[in-house]
Amino acid sequence: TLEVCDSQGQCTNETREIELVNLPPVLSVKTTPPISSWGVLFLGETASLTVSLNGTFDPEGADLWCWVEASYESGPDPDPNSPFCQMEIVRSFIGAPEEEFTASVVAFDGVNPAVSWTFEVNLFNEIPEPVMGISRTGESSADWVHIDGTGTSDPEGDEVRFEFHSDIDGLLASGTSTSGSLEWMGTLSKGAHKITMKSSDDQPEHVGQWKTSEETLIVSNSVPNARISSPADYLLTDSSEVILLGATGSGDWDLYCGELPSNGSGLLCNPDAPSSSELVSVIWESNISEAPLGGSWNVETRLPAGDHEITLTLDDGSGPVQDQVFVTVTESAPVLVLDSPVPGIEVTSNLPVLFDFRPSIDYDGDEFTVSVSSDLMGTILEGKTSDNWYNDYLVAGMHNLTFVLEDDNGMVRTHFQEITVLETAPVAVISGMDNGQYLPPGQMAILSAEDSIDYDGDIVLYEWRIDGEVVSDSMSFNQSFPPGPVRIDLMVKDSRGDESITSINLTVGSSSPELFDLTVSVQRVEDGVPTEVTTTVRLEDEDGTTQTVRGELLAGGASQAMFFQDDGTRGDAVAGDGIWSSRSSWVVSGGDWARVEVWAIDGDLVSPGQVHTVPIVEPSSGGLEAWVSSFGIPTLVISIAGLSIAGLFYRRRSLAEIAKDIEVIESWSTFDPREMDEQFDSQED
C-alpha cells in the first residue's frame, strides 16, 4: 500500500499485490583453452580444462553449487547443507570412453533448476612439450656443449621423439626416449647459434608435427694448437737421413676431420662438423733454409748440414701459434739408389747384369764414385760415376755384391746385396762361313766353333754332323764338298749335359773339267813295230767330280781307244795327283803321223780335247844310234847309280875307321892341351 498525504493532512493511498520470485543464478563462463566459435573445445587427452566462473552470481545473493560434468557422467548430488562454487574449476577428462562428447558448466542455487552451459569436447593425443637445458665448459668452438632434453615427457606416456638443431651446424642429434637419453654433448663451430629442440611422439597422426624450444648460443673462435711431435728436440742426424716433421696433436677444432689427411688421424679437429669453418695455414721453417720446408701436417725431408731451429707455425687468421725444436745435421756419405739389380733377383749367366745406380746422390753436393765387387769374381766396377749405367756378365753362383760409394771428402758408404746367377746352356755358333754362302767348286769349307759361347765356361764336346752323321769332334772343321746344297750341323754340349745345335747351309758350285800338258813318252813310233808308250795329261776339275778320262789313238786310218787312270797303277806314278796316265803298246801302220786326242768326262760335261801328234818312221836295222838308245843309255845310267852307291858306302866306312883311330889315340895318355897352354903362358911371362 502507498499512502500520500499533503501538508493539510489530506491523505490518499493505493494498494497493490506484489509476488516475489527467486531468480536462478547468472552464469558467466570462460575456458582455457578457449572454446572455438562453433562451440567445440579441443583438449588433449590428459590436458586439464580450466573454467573461470568470474561474473557468475545468484541474484538473491544465495550460495551456489557449481561444477563441470561430462555427458558420459552422472551429475553430482549437491549437499544442501554445503554449497560450494569455486570461481575457477580445473579438471581433465582422463579415461573418457570416447574422444568426442559434451561437457556442461552447471550453477545451482538450491531453489531454481540448475543453470548450465554445454559445449562439445574433442579429445586428441598431445605432442609433448620440449624441455631443454644448455650448459657448456666455455665459450669457444673447442669447448664442450651439453644440451639436456631429459625433462621432456609425453602426456599420454607415448615414446618421445626428439631432435637437436643448430642453424649453423645443422642436425646435432636425434632419437627416441626408448633408444637413448634425450641429450647431446659435443662442440659447436664459431658463430651465433640458434639451438632448437623439437619434440613429438610416435603416433602416426603426428608424423611431421613438432613442438619446439629455442635458445641462442654465442660461440667464439678457438685458437689453433701447434705441437711438433717429431723430430725429437736436439736430434743429431746427417744430411742423408729423411726426417719426418710431424705435427701429431696439432690442429684447430674449427677444422673438419674429414677434410684432413687420413681423416684427421692424430690431429686436433672436429669429427662431427659438416665442414671446416675456417682455413688454417701450416708452415714448417728452418733458420738455415730460405724457403719453407713444407706446408703439410707431416713433411718428410732432408736437411742440409748445420744447426737447425725447426719452427711449426699455425695460423687461422686470429694470429699465429708456433712450436720449435732444435736439430743438428752433419755431412753424410753418398747414398746409393740402386734401380738394378733388385735385391734377391735371380738372373742367368748368359745375360749381362745391369748396374744402374744413376739416381744415387750425395746430399752435400760432393762428387763421388761407385765401385762394385763380388765375393766370386772380385772387382766388377771400379771408380765409376753415376752419370751412366753399366752392365757385365757374372759367373754362375750366389754372389755377395759389395757397393762402395766414396765422395771427394773421403766419406764412404757401403751397401751389401745378394744376387743369384743361374747356369745356362751353351750357345752353338758356326764361324768362318755364313749361312747360305756360295762355295766355289773345289774350295774347302773352313768352319770353326770357337765363337760358340758357354757363359759358364764348361763346354766339353763339339760335334760336326753332315746328314746326321758325326764327321768331326774337334773345334774346327775343314772339308770340301761335292756340288750342290749341303747342310752342316754343329752341336756343343756342356758339363751339365745341356746342348745347343746350330746349322748352316752352303751351296757348292760345280765346274767343268779341263785338260793340260798332254805328253807322250816317245818322240817317234816305228811303223808296224810294237812300242810301249806312256801318255800323261793333267786334269783340272775344281769340284773334283771327274772320274773318267778317255783318249783315242789315230794312225793310218785306224783308231785305238785309250784309258787313263790316276790311281798309281798301270803306269800312273802317283795316285790322286791329278796326272792321269795311260800305258799301252802302240802298233801303228801306214801314215806319217800318229794322232793322240784325250778328253775328260764329268757327267754330261766333256772337256775340250787335248791333241798330240807323234811322227811315224820306218823301222831301223841298228847302228850306233840304235845301240845307244837300246843298250848304251841304260848301261850308263846303271853304272852311274852303282858308282854312287859304292862311293857312299866307302865314305861311311872311312869315317868309321877314323873314329876308331881317335879313340885309340885318346887312350894312350892323359895329355891335356890346356896344360900346354898354361906352360906357354908362363914362359911368355
Q: How would you sum up this structure, described in words?
A:
The chain is mainly β and 685 residues long. Helices cover 8% and strands 43% of the residues. The strands form 14 sheets. Strands 40, 42, 43, 45, 46 and 47 form a six-stranded mixed beta sheet that branches. The longest helix is centred in the C-terminal third of the chain and has 45 residues, at 624-668.
Short description:
The chain has about 675 residues and is mainly beta. The protein has two helices and 47 strands. The chain has seven domains: about 100 residues, Sandwich (Immunoglobulin-like); about 90 residues, Immunoglobulin-like; about 100 residues, Immunoglobulins (Immunoglobulin-like); about 80 residues, Immunoglobulins (Immunoglobulin-like, Sandwich), CATH 2.60.40; about 70 residues, Immunoglobulins (Immunoglobulin-like, Sandwich); about 100 residues, Immunoglobulins (Immunoglobulin-like, Sandwich); about 60 residues.
CATH fold topology of the largest domain: Immunoglobulin-like
Helix content: under 10%
Number of strands: 47
The low-confidence parts are 622-632, 664-685
Q: Can you tell me the overall shape?
A: elongated
CATH homologous superfamily placement of the largest domain = Immunoglobulins
Total helices: the number is 2
CATH architecture of the largest domain: Sandwich
Percent of sequence in beta strands? 35-45%
Q: What is the CATH C level class of the largest domain, in words? A: Mainly Beta
**Terminal-residue CA separation:** 226 Å
The average pLDDT score comes to 87
- How many domain units? 7
Look at the helices and sheets and give the structural class. Answer: mainly beta
Q: Evaluate the radius of gyration.
A: 70 Å
Described by strand count, sense and barrel closure, the largest sheet is: 6 strands, mixed
